[in-house]
Amino acid sequence: MNSPRDTTKTDPLLLLADAMGPGGPSASIERWEAQGQQELVNSETIPTWIQGGSDDDLTALGFQLGEVVEDDPLFRRAVLPEGWARVPSDHSMWSHIVDPLGRRRVAMFYKAAPYDRKAHISLNTVYSYVQNCLYEGTTPVLDDTWATREDVLKVLAEIETYELAHVKEWSGHREDYAREYEAEAREKAAQCAQLADELGAPTGGCSCSEFGPCPADGGAAHE
Taxonomically, which superkingdom (predicted)? Predict the structure, then answer.
């Protein structure tokens, strides 16, 4: 079962030669990171260290967890749930494990540079998934078990409430930067409301109407 190679065991002379190559040390580090990313997504392992989760959480998702790689405790063997896949991101130190619907369910960090090699994984929550969708301008893909319509709408309502609170906070300041922050918060809140509407939020008000007081109505709950 293949695993990313341990770059700390590279011959120091080869490291020096690579650092003296095109682009110098910075380009050399970038090459190490890019190669490490490809090795990870094409391997049959995952990072051993879990941030914000546990072995039980992975097992509950359908992962079959194996032993730590011999002589390289940074990684462990793992069989992904059926239909899931490892994919690279635009940043060479980050990769993802996506489910059959293409949603990023697990984030994998791997810094392959020999001088500071490290790796970890973290499980994405529905909240972080929705946040990423808002940032990327995409629509969340719903299902009946994880990103349900109810849970996604609830997250959108929470984010909208948070941004509207910032609109109120920054509107009391006259500085240019405050107006910029107010406009950004107002735009994000509007984005949440629009996305909630696309996903079929309850009619008769904003996306938070079903989940408590609406800040747009001065804290009064919708009837």
Answer: Bacteria
What are the helix and strand counts (H, E) for the chain? Answer: 6, 8
Q: Tens of pLDDT along 94-134?
A: 999 999 999 999 999 999 998 899 999 999 999 999 999 99
User: Is the pLDDT score of 151 beyond 60?
Assistant: yes
| Residue 175, burial from CB neighbour count under 10 angstroms (0-12, 13-18, 19+) | exposed
In contact, 124 and 102? CB cutoff 8 Å: no
The answer to pTM > 0.85 is: no
Q: What sections of the chain are H helices per DSSP?
A: 12-19, 24-41, 55-61, 126-136, 149-170, 176-198
